[in-house]
Amino acid sequence: MVKRAGSGYKMRKRSANKAASKAAIIEVAIDLFWENGYNGTSLRDIAEACGFEAANLYNYFRSKEQLLYEAMQEELERFLELLEPVASDSRGAPVERLKRIIEIHVERMLVIGRRYKMMYDSEIRHLSPVHRKRIVALRDYYSELLFNIIEDGKKTGDFAADIDARFVVLIIASIIMRTVFWFSPKGRLSPAEIADMIYKIVLDGIRPRKQEVKARKK
Amino acid sequence: MVKRAGSGYKMRKRSANKAASKAAIIEVAIDLFWENGYNGTSLRDIAEACGFEAANLYNYFRSKEQLLYEAMQEELERFLELLEPVASDSRGAPVERLKRIIEIHVERMLVIGRRYKMMYDSEIRHLSPVHRKRIVALRDYYSELLFNIIEDGKKTGDFAADIDARFVVLIIASIIMRTVFWFSPKGRLSPAEIADMIYKIVLDGIRPRKQEVKARKK
DNA sequence: AAGCTTAATTAACAACTGTTAATTAGATTA
DNA sequence: TAATCTAATTAACAGTTGTTAATTAAGCTT
User: Fold this and answer.
1) Residue A120 gets which letter from DSSP?
2) Distance A37 CA to C18 C1' (A)
3) pLDDT tens digits for chain A (218 residues)?
4) 1.10.10.60, 3.40.50.80, 1.10.10.10, 3.40.50.700: which CATH number matches B16-61?
5) How far apart, in whole angstroms, are the C-alpha atoms of residue A30 and residue B36?
6) Taking CB atoms and an 8 Å limit, are A206 and B37 in contact across chains?
């Protein structure tokens, strides 16, 4: 646009692998979005954390929205790939599959991806309609996995026949989603313990079991 | 600052009661914050929705942060006032008190104050340290009410003695907080039904009860 | 060494942000 | 009617935002 007296440009480093640096940018962005929200994170913030100028981001992403989308999408798909084999292993007992799903989800939530959380609800609104649909579809797929486990369990008699599976799915997801708000790595509970406690409450509630009829145990 | 050739100022209406219009502004602000988040809502947005110019807001609030704080604080206190008598009615059975608390909370969440939600977690970060402390204190007070009910129930034998009351409080709050994300007024479930289902799952879980021992019923 | 590709740069844009100062008009009171 | 009070206004501020255009330098290929 405007001619410059071409004097002192900054020294710069070039990163070898483009895909790799793109992934690195996404990591940085997820962290910042998590901490300050989408609107609270400027492209200059992200660029600074990456060690370059803001304009350079446009060599990787068409827009800020695109960056948000790719961040969400990648993380969600990675997550679902992890879940899929466990969830749809129709040989496993529903109770066990449920336990495992909760474990994996909590673990992923707290240990690996403490960052990628609010992405999946409040920040979704910043996506374009098309992108939003895709993310919601992935999220629904998760619900579907969980739903099938519950329904299987109702058939086998592991879960009460009169429970509303859709509703239970919401409950479980709700509990896990919010762990990330109150969890502290230094706290008294480990992710594994948390997962176990969630599992137990979902299964049996907080009321004391009337005395178990041991003979009936298979 | 600068002299103006005083010609055409806008026509304007004056609202009689200052406190009333302040309350009205807060209502508008809560709605917008809910829909677009704190950072996504400009003072000009709020002013426009109120029908006046942005600068006028400073006749009511010292800053945007102050507006957010007052919005949160007012709503939270109203909520706690509602809960208090039920929660600390030590004559009522813990089971019944728990049921009522869930009912009130869900109702408030979904019917009356669908808006005032994210306030209490992600948007809290926009508060100044002092204000944040006060809001968190109010929130903790809610936890305390719930905690006492659980502990009471453990003593009376209504709840299992080995459950972690702190944890249960988190679980219940988590479930209710997130109802606002998936609830639809046109959906198949009414707030009262949702409250009831939450209550039942928290109490008994999803596993089928072994046959009840009817004789033991008091 | 020359040329090409591409990841980085600088500079600028228009729009928008929270906030302040000075001014004006509507209603209430004297 | 005149004086007072105060809720509203206009105008401007300094900073920030996402984004674009033009330019430069680094590394690879030839």
Assistant:
1) G
2) 19
3) 333 333 455 665 656 688 899 999 999 999 999 899 999 999 999 999 999 999 999 999 999 999 999 999 988 888 899 999 999 898 899 999 999 999 999 999 888 765 656 566 778 999 999 999 999 999 999 999 999 999 999 999 999 999 999 999 999 999 999 998 899 999 999 999 999 999 999 999 999 976 544 444 33
4) 1.10.10.60
5) 20
6) no
Amino acid letter, A125: R
Nucleotide nearest to B21 (CA to C1'): D7
The reply to whether residue A205 touches residue B201, judged by beta carbons under 8 angstroms, is: yes
Q: Chain B closest CA to A187's CA: distance in Å?
A: 12
Task: Calculate the angstrom distance between C1' of D25 and CA of A12.
Answer: 8
Give the CA A25 to C1' D20 distance in Å. 21
Q: Work out the minimum CA distance from B218 to partner chain A, whole angstroms.
A: 13
CATH among 3.40.190.10, 1.10.760.10, 2.30.40.10, 1.10.357.10 for B63-210: 1.10.357.10
**Is B210's CB within 8 Å of A204's CB?**
no
CB contact under 8 A, B160 and A206: yes
Q: What is the 3-state secondary structure (H, E, C) of B166-208?
A: HHHHHHHHHHHHHHHHHCCCCCCCCHHHHHHHHHHHHHHCCCC
Residue B122 CB partners (closer than 8 Å, separation 6+): A37, A118, A122, B37
Dist. CA A182–CA B170, nearest whole Å: 8
What positions of strand D are covered by protein, i.e. any atom < 7 Å from a CB? 6-12, 16-28
